[in-house]
């Protein structure tokens, strides 16, 4: 009876021991096996039954195939293709292979046995984390995809026969770079079937910054100013006409800064300029482009009357004669320029013309000022006049003692200010200083002869019986009119600054 009583318990115990023994045997057998459990895949690679080293090799070969996969991006009707290798594809395969090799081999017996049995019923797919080099993706999008951008076009503006002609604006198309980069990265790193990829770039319409309805507002005369060059040489007159030609038709868009020097450059014969008088180191010299500062000065005064922003302006080193002190603007190399900034919401149009030895600049835009009751004027105020001092003498030993030629006339120096005065209904309401200018004084430069007649020459003259006694003097060699004349350019023409 006792045997029958304990028999069921014994059978249960034996069964449990048998199960434990089987599980232990299975687990221990797999633990001692250096191959990966069957039923494990890394991406699409079956690594079951492989050693860790074999799996790493197989996965590495697979990743090389992935690197050769192509990404094709469509931009409207255009496409751009690149390999994922070129986009810096990086995979963390070693960690995944290690994970695969540890399945069924780590943890307690029950965990290991469960992992092994699960693989008998269902395959296990492990994914390799894949990343792209975002910098390379950004470069691809900005350099290759954005190359097919269609920029928006502002309405065109020109003036023909005294009338403004405004052309149509155009809407553009552009790749949204940051969104396209994000789309590419997300597709590869999170939603990739490991095949070649085709996708469309993120694009958007780009409206013109200044559409036709804005450009059409540029029709009002804001300021106009003229100066004369009636006494200038033909070469200087050519330079003024050439400068006007280069600037005529220039448009300053809202927020943009216009460089007069940049527009007139290069100051070369190839760009239409001639040699004419210029200021250099306190003297007047012949220089290519002499006269262009009168172009800048005339434009400066037109801009003052238009009341647009003067971003940069410099006075001459010495006074000029075609405007009052402080009303001039000099151009010199890279260190003196006249820059105008459009501080309005409408394009500014610059018109330039030379007629009858007069140069005129007119600036057009959208008039918002009270032109009926409000008036402005600019007043030059001289604070100090500086005497040029004694003339500077240069001796020429090749010329006789009665030789004397003024090679450069004297220039007085000035300290001056320019003031803007505003009137409303004929009453002054404001007075504002625009600039302060200093002009150097320069003495006259004179060349005199120092050559003495020798005694033998005097004796020969006395022995000449055919000459009249009144003509037998120690008179110096007579000069031609060309040698005794002053330089052709007057102070009003000697306006171009040049680099020292």
What report would you give on this structure?
The strands form 10 sheets. Strands 13-21-20-14 form a 4-stranded antiparallel beta sheet. Strands 2-1-6 form a 3-stranded mixed beta sheet, covered by helices on one side. Strands 4-3-11 form a 3-stranded mixed beta sheet, covered by helices on one side. It is built from 12 helices and 28 strands. The chain has 500 residues and is of the alpha+beta class. The radius of gyration is 45 Å and the shape is elongated. The relative contact order is 0.10. Among the domains are: 217-369, no CATH class; 370-453, Resuscitation-promoting factor rpfb fold, CATH 2.20.230. The chain has helices at residues 2-32, 52-67, 93-102, 109-121, 134-145, 177-190, 212-215, 234-247, 260-264, 292-306, 455-463, 481-484, and strands at 40-42, 45-46, 70-75, 78-83, 90-91, 124-126, 130-131, 157-160, 163-166, 172-175, 197-200, 203-206, 220-228, 251-252, 257-259, 275-280, 283-288, 309-312, 339-341, 348-355, 358-365, 374-386, 392-400, 404-408, 413-424, 427-439, 445-451, 496-497. Helix 1 packs across helix 4 (109-121). Residues 476-500 have a biased composition (Acidic residues). Residues 458-475 have a biased composition (Basic and acidic residues). Pfam families: G5 (PF07501), PG_binding_4 (PF12229), VanW (PF04294).
Can you tag this structure with a few keywords?
500 residues; alpha+beta; four-stranded antiparallel β-sheet; three-stranded mixed β-sheet; 12 helices; signal; Vancomycin_resist_VanW; Glycopeptide_resist_protein; G5_dom; G5 domain-containing protein
